[in-house]
Specification:
five-stranded parallel β-sheet; alpha/beta; 5 strands; 181 residues; 8 helices
Length: 181
């Protein structure tokens, strides 16, 4: 597959600084990439390094210049990773309270194949709102990389740093490419 575009949305969680792994994986397979970050994720990532790799600005806010039209790139797939407890619940409810969430809502509404990789602890993962959110997202056709079939599970509270190096960036890309039309 060549000439494909992967839109990436990064949330503020431990593995966020390693999003370049996903970018490089996509580029090695001839996909272009662009990154949108939640407002808090901007403090987690190396913006200049990402912009150099992608050739595109990291977006985190709405257009500030009136009269200049900026639209989402034509995406073949969307990966949201790492996805926080808060973001997963917002996505499931359709909340679009920042640019990243609006981007996600629109791309899902366009039926772009979407992959979400949660980075949550076991205490949060046991909460009913989270479990309902994951079920709702899967019912909508969104691919949530979570569970034994993906080899990815929530981590113990306070154990996120120990799981950062195991984050399934490559799995996220592989799932996205399988579902891209």
């Amino acid at each position: 597959m060549t000439g494909r575009h992967l839109q990436i949305v990064v949330c503020a969680a431990g593995p966020a600084p390693d999003v370049t792994t996903l970018i490089n994986t996509a580029h090695q397979r001839s996909w272009t990439t662009a990154v949108t970050a939640t407002p808090h994720a901007m403090d987690f990532i190396d913006i200049p390094a990402i912009e150099k790799l992608t050739g595109a600005p990291v977006r985190s806010d709405y257009q500030k210049s009136p009269g200049i039209r900026r639209s989402l790139p034509a995406a073949d797939a969307l990966v949201i990773a790492p996805a926080t407890y808060n973001s997963i619940n917002k996505i499931a409810l359709g909340l679009a309270d920042n640019y990243a969430m609006t981007t996600i809502a629109e791309l899902i509404g366009r039926h772009i194949p979407t992959v979400i990789v949660p980075f949550v602890n076991t205490a949060l993962a046991t909460r009913l709102p989270y479990r309902r959110a994951v079920t709702s997202l899967r019912d909508e056709g969104i691919h949530v990389v979570l569970g034994p079939e993906h080899g990815w599970e929530p981590h113990p509270p306070g154990g996120g740093n120990d799981r950062r190096s195991d984050f399934p960036w490559t799995t996220a890309f592989e799932v996205a490419t399988r579902h891209a039309v």
